[in-house]
Amino acid sequence: MSELLIEEKNIVIPGEEIAKGMDFLPSTGTFREGESIFSKNLGLLEVRKHVIKVIPLKGQYMPKGGDDVVGIVRDIGFSTWSIDIGCPYHINLTVSDAVKEYVDLSKADISKYFDIGDIISVKVTNVTKSKMISLTMKSYGARKLEGGRLLKISYSKVPRLIGKKGSMIGMIKEKTNCRIHVGQNGYIWINGPAEGQRLVEKAVDMIEAQAHTNGLTDRIKEMLEGVKND
Amino acid sequence: MVNKENFKKYVLELYEKNNRPDGRGLLDYREPIIIETGVSKNAEGSALVTIGKTKVICGVKLEVGEPYPDSPDEGTMIVTGEFTAMSSPEFEPGRPGEKAVELARIVDRGIRESGAIDVKKLCIKEGEKVWTVFIDVFVQNHDGNLIDASALSAIAALLDARFPKIEEDGRINYNEHTEKLPINKKPISCTVIKTGDYLITDPNFDEEDVSDARVTVITDEDGIINGMQKGGTAGVTKDEIYKCIEIGLEKAKELRKHL
Q1: Which domains does chain A have, with CATH numbers?
Q2: Which terminus of chain A, N or C, has less C-beta within 10 A?
Q3: pTM for the whole thing?
């Protein structure tokens, strides 16, 4: 006898009982105690068949293996770059993970590959239990993002920014003529005409504020078209 | 900011089309400008000014002190500025830095040079006892244009201030207040920043960050310039200074309506 106590897409608070019985499985943002499943975060409840998830409304990005993220080069070491991907741990990208060719470290100045302030698209390969995080550039799409600017959004709202099968991000790209690269950590790189960049920034702010509401794609579309007609 | 050069390129491209990152015109102030007075219980007068996300609080305290020997019948005034560490990542706790001192000096200059406070009326006993006015400006949140917000909060707090009661035995009773402070003028500061060849008012934090120069013009209601201050590394031509004064006079009129 299993039953769901709260309907899907409702907001739950930490410690709130979501479901009773062993037929449901706790996923991210939830835990099981006894026969019940409780929420860990303040967030939106999501139920996929038997799997229960809570998507936090806000929070710090926690990297996990396989994430494609956008990072900023903060410092250069002897053979590493220190990368900021918006998580609370220190992350180094080593030369061997970043560059395909052979680099003679006794002679080379590695700032010619990436310099401080550069924005890169990079993949998280592994996160250990003690939160040692390794990154790699040897992945499809991993590269230095030339020019452009960085915007930020809460990582939990990235799925909303992308939309179903990329509908939202595709529309924003089309309407603004901007190139946009979204990392799973909530860092967004944009480049393009100034007016388009301004609209992207406005759209991102709108998504950040209204991610939990319905019909957001239509409102964003309206906003992008409305401003253009003025 | 990660990439200042690219951001500057972006804003210049927008300025060329008479547009801003938040959609304003080049010389528009953020709306609404909110002035709340009487926000502090312990101060004789106080005001909280909100321009966009910028928040500045100002408190006026009155104490009895000795006058300066060269002006025995005049009250004194001291302005201090402080950036609380919570207001922006770039501010550290500790004694006021260069920027905070500059801010306080600009606010001080506007009030002192315009003769906003009738200092003769602050005299209690000539040569012995006068009121000392402490104007303390605290930046609560930094999203650009701190100078205008601070100057506005200072004059709003002065207009709100009342004298504490002096008892018969000479003690000051801060729980009871009597008449309002004698304020004659309302000096308003308007800061114009220069980015590239464009003149802009009321920049937000990011716009201010990539600006080249800044000119502050303080004017009173008669259109008299009470003070000016130039900041930033780039030079400003004579024509641009005249343009800044013109903008300053016009914007001061708009800002004065909020008092």
Answers
A1: 3-56 (2.40.50.100), 68-145 (2.40.50.140), 149-229 (3.30.1370.10)
A2: C
A3: 0.83
